Amino acid sequence: MKIRSRLFPALAAGAIALLMMPALATAVPPPPPDTVKRLSNPDNLPVIRPGQNGWYGAYVSRVIKPKVRKIGSLAGRDIVELQTPVKVSGMGKYMAEGPTGHIWYVETREDKIIRIDPNTNEMTQYFVPKGAAPYSVAVDNDGTVWATAHGIEMLLELRPEEGVVYAHQPPSHGFLIHINVERKSNTVWFTQPGNNQVVSYRHDVGFREYPSPTKQSGPGRLDFDAEGNVWFPELYTDKLARLNPTTGEITEWDTPSKNGLPAGVRVEGKIVWVSEPMADALAAFEDGKWREYKIPTTGSVVSTNVTDEEGFVWFTEGGWRGSAGGNKIGRLDPRTGKVEEFDLPRSNSQPLGMTLGKDRSIWFSLVTGAHVCRILPRRTAR
């Protein structure tokens, strides 16, 4: 195993210089002006183009009760699918849970951010400006919904209760894609694999950019540990990286499989889980050591994962880079290495984003087919 550690150039003077240096930022947005209100008709949505910072009205739909049907079960837990209120299939990449327990996902082709009430399965659509094409979503402590609009290279800030959206232009472009929120500091983070960096944003400091020390590494989906360190995979160089935001130090480790294309990271306590879609494997990194778990399905394209209350790791197979993959979901027992899989009934469903709800439900998105799925908790499965 090779370990590398270095400071990026802006931090050569050390941590004190970081605290004193100005943030790489656009102007901090003011509160929404009274002239910006939610729209009463979705036909009046404005069109947004790259660089058009500012507040926009959103249209908030009536609540929709979707059709729900059971599609099977895995490990004694029922799996149901919910029909989504879209005409054009093209769901965004990931799902997120907000502080109130609502589940959020995006519909990229229809410029929508959608909220699901887990108590009723009811859905509310938030229509954002045309052309935004929201791609990935996260929710902060205040219930503000953040989404990447990689087609126009902007960061979207949706305030659901007010029905308004602010579009932020980052300091530089680089295929703005994966997003997450570090809850302790309520800081938004996203990766820009096109210009080889991770970026943070907060209203009071604006944007800050952290270049990867390895050229053309391709930072992917990121997560955070209890100390606030940022962990991210480096897709094109088969590495795992950890960023200390206070000092700017980035440390790298080689991942277990060559050409595994590590695409996503999830931190669970002291374990950092890394998906390796081209190696058909999930890898666990703890205390400087790796354990790698192979997925039985060849070409699985293992993607996102969560850990349930019993310590099992659930994961999706497909959707990454538009691949059908295994068209399955699976459950791994890290204690034994045993993997159980469930074949999804719709071909080319592309299961991708997965998140864990407060009621222990596991939600996952299907990139195609206009459905999302829910794995019910064992105690309520029926």
Automatic annotation (TrEMBL):
<keyword id="KW-0732">Signal</keyword>
<protein>
    <recommendedName>
        <fullName>Virginiamycin B lyase</fullName>
    </recommendedName>
</protein>
<dbReference type="Pfam" id="PF24684">
    <property type="entry name" value="Vgb_lyase"/>
</dbReference>
<feature type="signal peptide">
    <location>
        <begin position="1"/>
        <end position="25"/>
    </location>
</feature>
<dbReference type="InterPro" id="IPR011042">
    <property type="entry name" value="6-blade_b-propeller_TolB-like"/>
</dbReference>
<dbReference type="InterPro" id="IPR051344">
    <property type="entry name" value="Vgb"/>
</dbReference>
<dbReference type="InterPro" id="IPR015943">
    <property type="entry name" value="WD40/YVTN_repeat-like_dom_sf"/>
</dbReference>
